[in-house]
Amino acid sequence: MKATTTEQLKSLARTYTIFFVVLAFAHGCGNDFACRVSLQSSSSARSETNTKSNVKHEVVSTPETVLKKPVAPVKQNESETFQNSPLGNNKSTWILGYYVGYQSNLYPPETINYDALTHLAVGTIFPNDNGSLDTELNQGSEENGSRLAEILVDRAHNKGVKVLAMLGGAGMRVKLVAATTPSNLNSFVASLVAYARDQHGMDGLDLAWEPIKAEDEKQFEAFVDALRQAWPEIILTFPTGYIYSNRDKANPFIARIASKLDQINIQSYSMAVALPGSEWESWHSSALRGQSSFTPTSISESVKMYLGIGVPPSKLGVGIGFFGICYSTPVTGPRQKLNGSRIIASGNSMSYSKIMQEYYPYAKYSYDQFSDVPYLTLDPPVNDCSYISYEDEKSIIRKAEYVKKEGLGGAIIWTVNQGYLPDAPSEKRDPLMTVIQENFQ
User: Fold this and answer.
1) Could you list the residue range(s) of the whole structural domain that residue 329 is in?
2) Given a cut of 80, is residue 86 above it in pLDDT?
3) What is the DSSP string of 358-420?
């Protein structure tokens, strides 16, 4: 694919904003600002679930800056234990890594650090309009998708890792609602069990029903019950959204359904928005703490709100994104007035691998001690990016410490494919997975 030009990228940013305004009204948000930003945050990280192409940024030559080296992993207290849902690899906390087929070229199955994981979610499958399952995994055909799934299951099981099929994702709610109506539920469940358990020997499903609206709750619960009845030993995990502390509350339904799920994982990444007319300031993709009325998101605040409605800490996990977000000028760091700045890249186009190869060498590195996350300042900008928020080894160590301190169940990674550095020395090709392996014990 050709590199995206500056003008194309600016046009994409304008289209992106218009798209979410239209999408908000399509989902019944109207003028509800909280609903609109929730749609943007949910989709920005995971809407690429069903896309087959990535946005590629053009590298601009700029002077190099001397950068700080990543902090060495911190050893954790190995006496801390966790007992809840089945875990692989003899770990006390779960690490569920999402592996998506459209990024398989970034992280071939034979290169995966399975020792860092307890669970691998292979994605994505979803219902077609006629009730059948799309199981191509973005491989061009169901046969190729099946082959990839078989390879991943075999390699993961050989390392003691549980394997789940990721069902749904952003934009799939309508299809999931249609597939789980009373008239379709039994046949849909049968198809899922046949695919995941019988055909591929998987251990469960990740139910990415995004979002669950109030009118979906009874239907979703009936879906979970039907899966448990058809497959009693199934592992069921559920990704849920982060919460804007100044506007929203945790949905009590999540607490009510918790007893029927093995994991509830907060998608605590891409937790920043830059919408026209808002008073919010520039922020981090995955701040551990430090939220304010102008930067109203953090992992600790979302965790607090889910625990507050009764979700057991042992059932709750946090999110780690192997990608970042890019702000345009004039923003150069967190907590700044936007003054026309936009988030112009995220997800595929801002993978950790891409950040390290195309932006890090030209940036000033900083670590926000207050929020426990790193960021890059680019002056002059690279591909219109002047501020990049992302995860590194130090911030992941802090999240591991937090998970253990709070007695949480574990963490998810979106996506494991995005953290691999193929051109680095062999011992440095998978730094984020390595630090997860060493600190989530």
Assistant:
1) 6-439
2) no
3) IIGGGSEEEEETTTTEEEEEEEEEETTEEEEE---HHHHHHHHHHHHHTT--EEEEE-GGGG-
